[in-house]
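Complex record, two chains
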Amino acid sequence: MKKEKNAKTAAKPAPSLKKDREMPFYVVKRGDAAKTPGRSILIHGGAILIALLLCGIATIFVTGDNPISIYATMFKGAFGDAHNLWKTLQDIAILLCVSLAVTPAFKMRFWNTGAEGQVLISALATAMCMFYLGGAVPTPVLMLIMILCSILAGVIWAVVPAVFKAFWGTNETLFTLMMNYVAIQLVEVFLKVADKSGSNTVGPNLLKHGWFPELFGQKYLLNILIVAVLTVLVYIYLKYSKQGYEISVVGESENTARYIGVNVKKVIIRTMVVSGALCGVAGLLLVAGTSHSIDSNLVGGRGFTAIMVSWLAKFDPLMMVLTTLLLVFLDRGASEVTTNFGLNSAYSEILTGVIIFFIIGCEFFINYKVMINRNHPFFKKKEQEAAKEVL
Amino acid sequence: MFEFLSQFIQRSILQGTALLFGSTGEIITEKSGNLNLGIPGIMYMGGICGVIGGFFYQNAAGRSINPVLAILIPLLASLLGSLAASLIYSFLTITLKANQNVTGLALTTFGVGFGNFFGGSLIKLVDSDVPSIALTKIAKVYKTTLPFAEKLADSENIFGKILYWFCQTFLSYGFMVYLAVIIALVAAMVLKKTRVGLHLRAVGENPATADAAGINVTAYKYFATCIGGMIAGLGGLYYVIDYANGVWSNNGFGDRGWLAIALVIFAVWKPNLAILGSYLFGGLYILFNYIDGASMQVIPLLKMLPYVVTIIVLIVVSMRKKKENQPPASLGLSYFREER
């Protein structure tokens, strides 16, 4: 193919060569010194503010309500009373857990788009343990088996694409993406086997055993505590452990990693094991700690949202707490607004999309600088005119 | 048996056409080095924008539907919607050099939300008195088949019957089914035989080399992503107006967008192979209807098949390392001239 290309381009120059392609502006990369945290916070904050304003304007158009009462409704929906607040915290915990799971892989530039499937398959493993072993073995033993099975399921789902990536360079984005749908259909099989009535969920009436205990009368408190501990652990793992350092070296440059004697294949597989195990915990929390039921939409796109959360937080687990807070607030707030006005709840997805567009867009202004091309005819002319006026 | 086969093929083609639009669009996009994971969202956008256009036209026109306008208005609205979505993606990934995976996923979130929101709330938003969005009149125009296909039906002899089956199998569709095939064939031709296609492939393989050879990388990337997005958007339009008879149902489009992306791998980045692949996937998608005694537990396993097949193709392609079957070398990477 290369040869063909050379022959053809040599025979006749590409038409665009003839035209003068100088632009009035050009882009240069900022040095690391220019990327101060202050600037970054300023730009990010500005982007989020603009995005929120835009969302507000769109919401005014859609609902016809005044902006202050819309934001008040959103706030009420997310933090209004004790029930809403706990629900919000719980949503944050689950999304944060999935985000923590995808982060080590992302830091390694392994584009795991399969968190959705990894969480779902471990949710399935948990539900199967509850369904088949519930009542047959004492609860502590059941709990232990559930934890082991769900983590194992997540690890298997994550490590298969990793092995193929490590040894044959198989495209991991597409591979993990496909694994999601295999997991979804496996859940469907279980639903049909477990519930002969043909319903689309297997609910708490069939999964009676192995529920997480309530702490201080709060259903979700245990989930939140587990995720809080995991957040700190992942932070330490990525920032202070040798393995965490190897991950970032492989992510920066595989060649460098190989040069300094890192076994890249081993790092890829090991990191995906960690990633899958964390997804396993998320699946466990979802079934045993939250819904006590399973259906094929249990994860509800969190696997994909987690990718955005992790990216927006620049793979920093502590920053991820803030980004999940932002996205969950939007989601719960927007659903409150749409319920009030009898509109479709998908509105929150539009808002999430807009916010993320702005945040990823603004990163350009952190990493690059737009410069004026003084040699461009446009500016030359202006300069000449200015000079004439002075004369 | 013959009749059964003919019916099965017909259903597969009807089911596969939406996938064909999506995968042709994604192939063109990926050839420029942009891995657009926003295709599912773009297909929703294309679908809902066509529906919005058609809804307003059908309400305005009342009883007298002009067939030309009934086709053009939803078509143009759909193209505009998917163009807008592709422009968001292009601007973020090409001009602002944002990460393609994240941008694509955000676009999918946005597009699916956009589709479901307007699909679910359009009637309330415009204060219309109809109970639900049903573009049946427009769907009828879209589903108009070739005039002679019906007439051949009543022949008595064996040739007549074969001809009838032939017509049923291959000529009984609305124009969009043929449009999908034509677009795929044209795309294959352009990619393989023309200078534009060569430049596009060069941009996807190695943008720095293409840039050095005087090819305008940015323009090619924008162009390919937008054209690809618009073609994919037609898939959404086809699904709602033709396949679903003009009735929008939330999440009705399902996972077809991801299946279209899977198809790109299955077709090893060749639009002409995507034609066969999409009908095959379409057939796999509906196979469970045709298996006698398929119990409820087996249906999901059959639905899993397209994905498993895709995974196997992906693995085999990466193991064999045949040059012409590889993904474009710079797939998923944004290009910045000063970077080495």
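Note: The beta strands of chain A are 25-29, 368-372.
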